[in-house]
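Final report, Chapter 2: Outcomes

The project's central promise was a pipeline that accepts a single protein chain and returns its three-dimensional structure in a standardized token representation, suitable for archiving and comparison. That pipeline is now operational. To close this chapter, we reproduce one record exactly as it appears in the project archive, with the input sequence first and the structure output second.
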Amino acid sequence: MAKSGGVIVGLDIGTTKICAIVGEKTETGIDIVGIGTSPSTGLRKGVVINIDSTVESIKKAVEEAELMAGTEISSVYCGIAGGHIKGFNSHGIVAVKDKKEVRETDIRRVIDAAKAVAIPLDREVIHIIPQEYIIDEQEGIKEPLGMSGVRLEAKVHIVTGAVSSAQNIIKCANRTGLNVADIVLQQIASSEAVLSQDEKELGVALVDIGGGTTDIAIFSNGSIVHTAVLALGGNHITNDLAIGLRTPSPDAEKLKINYGCAMSSMVGKDERIEVQTVGDRKMRTFSTRTISEIIEPRVEEIFSLVQREIIKSGYEDLLASGVVITGGSTLLTGMTELAEMIFDLPIKRGVPKGFGGLLDIVSSPIYSTGVGLVLYGAKDPEAAKFKIREKNIYNKVKTRMMDWISEIF
């Protein structure tokens, strides 16, 4: 795992920023001891489009995190997003060996049966997440090991992504001298940091609005049941401002952060600000209401598309905990109010929790994915035993041989 002396590192490779977060294992849990950020210029909509630029940004973020944490970083957990991500549910059935109690080999076989679906050659499996097990028609079993039964079934959620996108992320990390312990879907990482177990049990939709993508994860009965990625995010709001106000993108980003509001009705008409125009033209004056009137339709579109995705999943009536929004773009004033109007559900802005250390710095929606990657990596290694990625074929064959020998003797 990505641990060296109890150190776990999450690397959030985003469209607008690259963030490295260092966590240290303690007796009470995890302490965040270092953080490094760098502007990201080599990605578009969550996908690497310039390896050299991405490598430079990763290097800066990691060096900054190393300096703050006082430790050398060699291995990381990387987040992955982008419109190429697809998630679907699958079901596997096997007979329990010798019709006795369920063993590790039976669990592995039923997972293998569930993942035996046709996947195009240009895609690879990123996650296989068990939702529940069924033993002799007894549903809702989370841990079947040691239970008696004849037939074992497994319901799983499978997440796939483009092979090239995953390889490019690994390549960028490797070029900076880092080993990638695992690639983690960004909304799964964020859910580790911002959702409680009670919310997952009751039913909740997590909406992580980043710079280039909006990541969706729906939980019900404690398990993930639906994932999706929309190729829309905070950068589209910035672009709308840049075009609408005829101002350079960096200035539009500052205007969004300093004066942006997702609901124009919450902004007065009196306040006016000067806006830099493109080229050497003179400054122009706009009201802050105008800025909000440009922002509101785009945010409304993002939330409407998320709502359509939730309805398409078929779980819209099972979200007793409502919707949790997180990600840097949700810091805009009026986001929760507009979300409540569109979803007609309880809305909460999610911030990372469940750790110690640099609480005052990382307790922000901006760092949800980065902190979540650390918390994901801090879990018992057994939690990740169904990962597809094997370090090498020797390990895979060795594991199978050991299982075979244990069955005989």
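Archive annotation: The domain at 234-295 is CATH 3.30.420.40 (Nucleotidyltransferase; domain 5).
This record, like all others produced under the grant, will remain available to the consortium after the project formally closes.
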